[in-house]
Specification:
heterotrimer; A alpha/beta (404); B alpha/beta (381); C alpha+beta (131); A: 3-stranded antiparallel sheet; 12 strands; globular; B: 381 residues; alpha/beta; Aspartate Aminotransferase, domain 1; 2 domains; 3-stranded antiparallel sheet; 41% helix
Chain lengths: 404, 381, 131
């Protein structure tokens, strides 16, 4: 390869901000020590740094630092929140859970696991724009509903759910409300003093922090209880045991500090880039934006290119690093379950590309991407029998395809 | 004042070679290992290389290495995952397990499992007669640690595994403290699962592994994106995993020389401790070469640790995880050590970077501190 | 996914892309796969009176392996009799392109496309004889 591909996959992971890395490295060397070792200064320095970072994480989402529990990442936060709250409250509230079909697998799979253990679950289908209907949500609540889990920002299509309204419905009905905010920090303002949310999951590596560290917000007033999933030394007030890496915690704190201070300026710049990308790509015939454009983070653009197959498209655009569907499922050949839940045909789901823009994306990157897509889509369509049929005026949805 | 670090069983200093290997994955543009583009593939390749290094260091096949965020997670994963699909019979663990084996095993009692804690003798050796009698009951899982974090006592795990297998039970061993200090070979130990951790072997915090026999009907613990062949979901911590790989390789390379060095230092230390009237726990047992756990009658361990700290020596009063509490060590109580003596216990855990001079200084300071404490006790009396 | 050099070559420089006149009595068309499955292959062969394939063209909607498999068979088909063409096995295609196990279905699809095109030309010939 002549040069590194242009990175437009910030929703899969973000590079560590150099300022974050600079803050982390001393904790890898000079300030080593197990934060739980209370008996010597190595442990103390580590503990102080951990508490400063906890403050920074809390500040970004306007929470009390005592409401922040460290985890190894958003997957663990989601597992802990869902299994922990469902198990704790099952005997008093009931065993029904509501979530959405477009949630991340780290929410869907724990809910499925709880189903196997005797819970029942409703997987709400979102509207075609990706948003959850408040009426449908309300209708799904049952007397025995214990927990609802709805993500703030979708990882594939970037749509922002109306967490405040959904949370209010949960409050009225005594339902514990968990929100996966892994894709939201630094992109939308989160005020947990105002939002009726009981549990919220965070990840560092989606917000220019390191991998291997995340957090779970656990509300204190009214106090939410969870059953610990990882047992041991009783770290994190018994909610999560296990030695966590001080340097990673410090990195998450710094990443969230930068996010708090810079997000408004950064998001405005990113919106300009996204709009430029959207305008450029929309000059290509037969393209479809997936998900609502208004209720959406500016970082995300998910587009289907009709009559072009997704994997060959990815191969054709090696000069840019993007993802087709969610990174976590791209090892499989299934079309994105998120796009299918929106009612997209399999063909359109297959041909979707998620462009995610971030801190280090430039206007030149965007222009290169537009030119590349124009060229390659045109080449692949030359190859495509479906494009030929479309141009001949054949309605592909009416064709009887042989099963294979 | 420069501090002398004598608490290497709690955590170790990151090796500079390890850090150099990690830096590219911390600073530069990096991908999610699940992504299929060049950034993702670079991350994936680095993880697979580390997996091979870890496997080779513990006599396992790369496909047997399930990467986790820590030893604690791997132990919780093992205890929960190996029993989830078993009939709710019995779990047998030793009475001296680390809390991250002990607690999940205790939690399983609420799922209907019976928990048996197998005795150890006064020298911290597993009581095999007791184990055999426990195993007369149908048992799903036996978990015994390879080396104890406090006393350093090493157990006959292959024998444990043999007895467990006869009974149709799986065997798990927590080898977190043993790895890097004595040879650890998964195949020879004959267990179904084994936990190891990066930050105990001069690797970074944030990575651990469960070495797992693929024939175990394992239930995943962390659910989601399906990483680690579905056994452990969650975006891989590439930098930490890379560090763990190199640290594993170095641990094996340096094992013999480091063990010799720490053993010499400990012999020197313990000769001095005897002169000061210390009781050395599990002294007559095969122990990790770097660990010395000892106590003085009528001296509070926590007080001693604080006093030593003021003089510049970092030691532990037990395991770091429990140093919040002033309860005597459950390991010592299981050995039948009198609570008064147990409360006075402190642990020195050495590393090859420590020096004979540091040990001499430590013994001098310890003598001073003990005298001061005795005077205070005398004045109070 | 690591592709072999041969797959990459066919993908980047596909041979014999295009269409033949489907109404030509000497042209057989095979269209296999389904958009919902992520691949559709259209293979067209022109067969002379001696039963030898003179020309072959393809269009494929699908992954790199699917494109490479169809491109490869167009090269193989030219100069073969329809009987020889019919005997081409997917395993030969998979082997030539060093397809990974998850991509074997692409070679199966290419074999199916050949069989469908041959069947089409045979049906046309039979209709002509009957007429």
């Amino acid at each position: 390869m002549d040069r590194d591909p242009i990175y437009l996959d910030y929703s899969a992971t973000t590079p560590v901000d150099p300022r974050v890395a600079a803050k982390m490295i001393p904790y890898l060397t000079e300030h080593y020590g197990n934060p739980a070792s209370r008996s010597h200064p190595y442990g103390w320095t580590a503990e102080k740094a951990v508490e400063e970072a906890r403050n920074e994480v809390a500040k970004l989402v306007n929470a009390d630092p005592r409401e922040i529990v460290w985890t190894s990442g958003a997957t663990e936060s989601n597992n802990l929140a869902i299994k922990g709250a469902a198990n704790f409250y099952a005997s008093t509230k009931g065993k029904h859970i509501i979530t959405v079909a477009t949630e991340h697998k780290a929410v869907i799979d724990p809910v499925r696991e709880l189903e196997r253990q005797g819970f029942s679950a409703t997987f709400l289908e979102p509207e075609p724009d990706g948003l959850v209907s408040l009426e449908k949500f309300k209708a799904a609540i049952r007397p025995d509903t214990v927990l609802a889990s709805v993500m703030l920002v979708n990882n594939e299509i970037g749509v922002i759910q109306d967490i405040e309204s959904i949370g209010n419905i949960c409050r009225e009905n005594g339902v514990i409300f968990h929100v996966d905010a892994a894709q939201a920090t630094g992109k939308v303002h989160i005020d947990l003093e105002k939002l009726p949310v009981d549990l919220m999951s965070f990840s560092a590596h989606k917000t220019y922090g390191p991998k291997g560290i995340g957090a779970l917000y656990v509300r204190r007033k009214p106090r939410i209880r969870i059953e610990a999933q990882m047992h041991g030394g009783g770290h994190e007030r018994g909610m999560r045991s296990g030695t966590l890496a001080t340097h990673q915690i410090v990195g998450m704190g710094e990443a969230f500090r930068i996010a708090r201070e810079e997000m408004d300026v950064e998001n405005a710049r990113i919106r300009t880039l996204r709009d430029r990308l959207l305008a450029g790509l929309q000059t290509i015939e037969e393209t479809y934006v997936n998900g609502d454009l208004a209720h959406r983070i500016p970082h995300n653009l998910n587009i289907s290119f009709n009559y072009v197959e997704g994997e060959s498209l990815i191969m054709a655009i090696k000069g840019i690093a993007v993802s087709s569907g969610s990174a976590c499922t791209s090892a499989s050949l299934e079309p994105s379950y998120v796009l299918r839940a929106l009612g997209r045909s399999d063909e359109l789901a297959h041909s979707s590309i998620r462009f995610s823009i971030g801190r280090f994306t430039t206007e030149a990157d965007v222009d290169y991407t537009i030119a590349l897509l124009k060229e390659k889509i045109s080449k692949l369509r030359e190859l495509s029998p479906l494009w030929e049929m479309y141009q001949d005026g054949i309605d592909i949805s009416k064709v009887q395809w042989a099963a294979h | 004042m420069t501090h002398v670090y004598f608490d290497h069983n709690a955590t170790t200093v990151l090796d500079s070679q390890v850090m150099q290997a990690m830096l590219p994955f911390m600073a530069a543009q990096q991908g999610n290992a699940t992504s299929r583009h060049a950034y993702g593939r670079t991350a994936r390749d680095a993880i697979e290389q580390a997996r091979a290094q870890i496997a080779s260091a513990v006599g396992a096949h790369p496909s047997q290495v399930v990467l986790t965020s820590s030893g604690t997670e791997a132990n919780n994963f093992a205890i929960n995952g190996m029993t989830a699909k078993q009939p709710n019979t019995q779990i047998a663990i030793s009475a001296i397990e680390h809390p991250c084996v002990m607690r999940p095993a205790e939690m399983l009692q609420s799922h209907g499992f019976k928990l048996a804690k197998v005795d150890v003798n006064a020298q911290c050796k597993l009581d095999f007669e007791n184990l055999e009698s426990v195993l007369r009951n149908p048992t799903s899982l036996v978990s015994v640690m390879l080396a104890n974090n406090e006393t350093g006592a090493i157990q006959e795990i292959a024998h444990v595994a043999e007895l467990a297998k006869k009974n149709g039970a799986y065997t798990h061993t927590d080898a977190v403290q043993a790895f890097g200090k004595i040879p650890v070979n998964f195949a020879d130990l004959n267990v179904n699962a084994m936990t190891i951790s990066s930050h105990k072997i001069h690797g970074p915090l944030g990575a651990g592994a469960l070495i797992l026999d693929k024939r175990v009907d394992m239930t995943p613990f962390m659910l989601g994106g399906g990483q680690e062949k579905g056994l452990r979901s969650g975006t891989e911590n590439v930098a930490a995993i890379v560090g763990f790989g190199i640290a594993s390789e170095l641990a094996v390379k340096n094992l013999t020389s480091h063990a010799q060095k720490t053993q010499q230092l400990r012999t020197q230390l313990e000769a001095g401790l005897h002169e000061l009237g210390a009781t050395i726990f599990a002294e007559n047992t095969k122990r990790l070469p770097n660990t010395s756990f000892f106590g003085f009658n009528n001296v509070e361990g926590e007080t001693l640790v604080m006093a030593l700290d003021k003089k510049g020596f970092a030691v532990a009063s037990g395991s770091a995880c429990s140093s919040d509490s002033t309860e005597p060590s459950h390991v010592l109580l299981a050995m039948g050590i009198a609570p008064d003596l147990a409360r006075g216990a402190i642990r020195v855990s050495l590393d090859a970077n420590n020096t004979s001079e540091q040990v001499n200084q430590f013994l001098l300071v310890l003598k001073q501190v003990l005298n001061q404490l005795k005077q205070m006790v005398a004045m109070a009396a | 996914m690591a592709y072999s050099d041969k797959v990459l070559d066919h993908y980047e420089n596909p041979r014999n892309v295009g269409s033949l006149d489907k109404n030509d009595p000497q042209v057989g068309t095979g269209m296999v796969g389904a958009p919902a499955c992520g691949d559709v292959m259209k293979l067209m062969i022109k067969v002379n009176d001696a039963g030898v394939i003179e020309d072959a063209k393809f269009k494929t909607y699908g992954c790199g392996s699917a494109i490479a498999s169809s491109s490869l068979v167009t090269e193989w088909l030219k100069g073969r009799t329809i009987e020889e063409a019919y005997a081409i096995k997917n395993s030969e295609i998979a082997e030539e392109l060093a397809l990974p196990p998850v991509k074997i279905h692409c070679s199966v699809l290419a074999e199916d496309a050949i069989k469908a095109a041959v069947a089409d030309i045979k049906a046309k010939q039979a209709a002509k004889e009957a007429a």
